[in-house]
């Protein structure tokens, strides 16, 4: 089901909007808090979830007077800093505690900024509880889109990724049947234009030097391999109910065009703006309205020329692997995502080379049986098996 099945929003938004931010200490989570900081009359931060960042969570909870804080890591239970949480703030621990925040009666909107496959549990919980879901966890849509999307009602899930937010905005008021192609733009990462020979000895520090966006380490490495764009292709396939062969990648180095939709009559709509993740975050929280800008607008008279280029899927083979996984479907995207998370982490630890990331993912995909997606328990097992297999290919 597309998130544009009809125009009537089904999820309730109170004013101020009562928000739970999952993955609050990550890049998207921190930028979400900054958006909330700018609109205290429009947003109430009710709940925060982090993995183990106690100091960060305590500081944020006090700033926003949160009622609930959850830690995925149960080992922080005895941290003395928890004593200075706001009076009456309820604290919980473990992965199920994070999921429980998505089901709270006091919450209207769940910002899911949990990194990796783990975010699907909270995503499903939020959807089933009828919450507005501001979604920044692309991996869980890649892994479990077949389970999540049939449950999503129109107006309930608003994408936070800049590319999918752009597509969402371009499709407002349009008939999805009129889509010819969707163009996801891509900065090309720090290694655009390099050959495979030039990528043999690049380091994690080299790969983390993204030219335009400020993001967490995992996603920044994914941008360097172009796996991030591959994940986004599969995400767009699920979000907008679009066949994989109608999705294109355009390398756009200036990161001003955030994505485009081409229609059957040849018209193209694009969403443009500054390279600032707070913009799509703000739109997800304000939808169907728009709030005043909090970032500096682009001075179009002064900006560099806007260019486009082809994505090199031979040099950056992770993009081709993701396109293949999305086309085959079933559990293959889950297998691919699990292997990539293992390889990405191994590269950041110095246990494999940059090009090994692609090799590890390909070997894992080739050695795995593809099944039809049945339920979350199956995906959990497939994910675990793929991770174990991928680890056997590291070093």
Automatic annotation (TrEMBL):
Residues of the DXP reductoisomerase C-terminal domain: 272-388
GO BP terms: isopentenyl diphosphate biosynthetic process, methylerythritol 4-phosphate pathway involved in terpenoid biosynthetic process
Required cofactor(s): Mg(2+); Mn(2+)
Reactions performed catalytically: 2-C-methyl-D-erythritol 4-phosphate + NADP(+) = 1-deoxy-D-xylulose 5-phosphate + NADPH + H(+)
Residues reported in the UniProt entry to bind NADPH: 26-28, 137, 139, 216
Keyword Oxidoreductase: yes
Residues engaged in binding 1-deoxy-D-xylulose 5-phosphate: 138, 162-163, 187, 210, 228-229, 232
Keyword line: Isomerase, Isoprene biosynthesis, Magnesium, Manganese, Metal-binding, NADP, Oxidoreductase
Coiled coil ranges: none
1-deoxy-D-xylulose 5-phosphate reductoisomerase C-terminal domain span: 157-240
Residues given in the record as Mn(2+) binding sites: 161, 163, 232
Enzyme Commission no: 1.1.1.267
A molecular function (GO) term: 1-deoxy-D-xylulose-5-phosphate reductoisomerase activity
Pathway: Isoprenoid biosynthesis; isopentenyl diphosphate biosynthesis via DXP pathway; isopentenyl diphosphate from 1-deoxy-D-xylulose 5-phosphate: step 1/6
1-deoxy-D-xylulose 5-phosphate reductoisomerase N-terminal domain boundaries: 19-145
NCBIfam families: Dxr
Primary role: Catalyzes the NADPH-dependent rearrangement and reduction of 1-deoxy-D-xylulose-5-phosphate (DXP) to 2-C-methyl-D-erythritol 4-phosphate (MEP).
Name of the protein this chain belongs to: 1-deoxy-D-xylulose 5-phosphate reductoisomerase
